[in-house]
């Protein structure tokens, strides 16, 4: 038996598996029917207790070759039912074995519908998973829990080369998903991945054809040093930003961001490309959004979330730069929005010809 306690006092009782320790974090939900391994290994979930709304998790096991990072990034993983006997030809271990190996807390057997409704009604909350009912002190600690500088926890320690190719692209790693690198590799890019706080002059002096700004965790506004660095890079070379990269560019251009009530997390979010007049099904994982009224005059909204009309993409007139909030590399469509990587390559090639 284990307990998930929310900051409003609500308690859910369930079955503990994986690491049986006490853990606290921000409680969020993901609506994906598949892709739990990609969720587990997405660095954007750093500091979060993730609840899956799909009722059974673990039914196809774990295959390390599809992980988005070196291991699980969540603080805890919550579900209605844990499948202990997966069936898939690629399965190498069960979800239970995987979480045990990485010392990640798992919690099964709770009413995830009730939990999701509560988060939708009241908004994202802090929570704590304990093996016995939590103490008053633990609850007070949980209410003020924060991960300081989560980007520093998820970025690479030093720069590295990922692949070879015709176009030299620098990648600023804020907590990247590996499929971003794979998507650029398929398009003939030689990638050099840099830590998040790399001096911008090193990138400018590197003779790169383009700059990729990746996804990552946390409140974009706490990354003040990175925002200042981006101000020096904007206009110097073609830029494509995804998720946190999208938000950081907006902040560097003078816009503002705000926290969403419960965020967008799942593989079924409709997004409209305003220029193509077409709606795509996208994968998303973010808790913040750009405030439309704060955008500078040069910013044109290229994509909108068709559920709540929040900004999902921006193009900057006069700059070789565009960004999107969703994840075109995640392929929920399955590859409907991969055209954005092609547009980035076109932007690079146009710059190289000029």
List the helices and strands and how they pair.
Elements: E1 2-6, E2 11-18, E3 23-30, H1 36-40, E4 48-52, E5 56-57, E6 76-78, E7 81-82, H2 95-101, E8 105-108, H3 112-122, E9 125-130, H4 136-143, H5 150-154, E10 160-163, E11 167-173, H6 178-185, E12 189-195, H7 200-204, E13 210-213, H8 224-233, E14 239-242, H9 244-252, E15 257-273, E16 278-290, E17 299-305, E18 311-316, E19 321-324, H10 339-353
Helix pairs in contact: 8-9
CATH class of the largest domain: Alpha Beta
Task: Name the poorly predicted regions.
Answer: none
Average pLDDT metric: 97
Report the strand count.
19
- Judging from the principal axes of the Cα atoms, what is the shape? globular
* The number of domains: 2
Provide the succession of SSEs.
EEEHEEEEHEHEHHEEHEHEHEHEEEEEH
User: What would you call the structural class?
Assistant: alpha/beta
Tell me what portion of residues adopts beta-strand conformation. 25-35%
Percent helix, as a range, is 10-25%
Task: Walk across the major sheet and give the strand order.
Answer: 10-12-11-13-14-19-18-17-15-16
Measure the end-to-end span. Answer: 65 Å
Full CATH superfamily name of the largest domain: Class I glutamine amidotransferase (GATase) domain
Radius of gyration: 20 Å
The CATH architecture of the largest domain would be: 3-Layer(aba) Sandwich
- Put simply, the count of helices is 10
From the 3D structure, determine the CATH topology of the largest domain.
Rossmann fold
Biggest beta sheet attributes:
10 strands, mixed
Domain Carbamoyl-phosphate synthase small subunit N-terminal: 1-130
Keywords: Amino-acid biosynthesis, Arginine biosynthesis, ATP-binding, Glutamine amidotransferase, Ligase, Nucleotide-binding, Pyrimidine biosynthesis
Pathway: Pyrimidine metabolism; UMP biosynthesis via de novo pathway; (S)-dihydroorotate from bicarbonate: step 1/3; Amino-acid biosynthesis; L-arginine biosynthesis; carbamoyl phosphate from bicarbonate: step 1/1
Protein name: Carbamoyl phosphate synthase small chain
């Amino acid at each position: 038996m284990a307990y998930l306690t929310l900051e409003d006092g609500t308690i859910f009782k369930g079955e503990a598996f994986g690491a049986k320790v006490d853990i606290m974090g921000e409680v969020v939900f993901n609506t994906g029917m598949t892709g739990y391994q990609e969720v587990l290994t997405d660095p954007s979930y750093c500091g979060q207790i993730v609840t899956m709304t799909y009722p059974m998790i673990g039914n196809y096991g774990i295959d390390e070759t599809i992980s988005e990072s070196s291991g699980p990034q969540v603080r805890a993983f919550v579900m209605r039912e844990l499948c202990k006997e997966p069936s898939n030809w690629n399965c190498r271990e069960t979800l239970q074995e995987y979480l045990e190996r990485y010392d990640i807390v798992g919690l099964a057997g709770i009413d995830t519908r009730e939990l999701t409704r509560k988060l939708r009604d009241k908004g994202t909350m802090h929570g704590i998973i304990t093996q016995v009912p939590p103490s008053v002190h633990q609850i007070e600690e949980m209410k003020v829990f924060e991960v300081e500088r989560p980007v520093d926890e998820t970025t690479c320690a030093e720069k590295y080369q990922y692949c070879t190719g015709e176009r030299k692209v620098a990648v600023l790693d804020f907590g990247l998903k590996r499929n971003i690198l794979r998507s650029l590799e398929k398009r003939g890019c030689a990638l050099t991945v840099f830590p998040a706080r790399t001096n911008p002059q090193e990138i400018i002096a590197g003779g790169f054809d383009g700059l990729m700004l990746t996804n990552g965790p946390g409140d974009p506004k706490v990354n003040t040093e990175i925002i200042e660095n981006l101000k020096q890079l904007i206009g110097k070379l073609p830029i494509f930003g995804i998720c946190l990269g999208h938000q950081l560019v907006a902040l560097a251009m003078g816009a503002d961001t705000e926290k969403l009530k419960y965020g967008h997390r799942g593989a079924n979010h409709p997004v409209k490309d305003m220029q193509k007049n077409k709606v795509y099904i996208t994968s998303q994982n973010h808790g913040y959004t750009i405030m439309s009224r704060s955008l500078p005059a040069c910013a044109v909204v290229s994509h909108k979330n068709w559920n709540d009309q929040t900004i999902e993409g921006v193009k900057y007139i006069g700059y070789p730069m565009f960004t999107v909030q969703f994840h075109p590399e995640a392929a929920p469509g399955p590859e409907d929005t991969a055209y954005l990587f092609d547009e980035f390559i076109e932007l690079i090639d146009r710059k190289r010809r000029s």
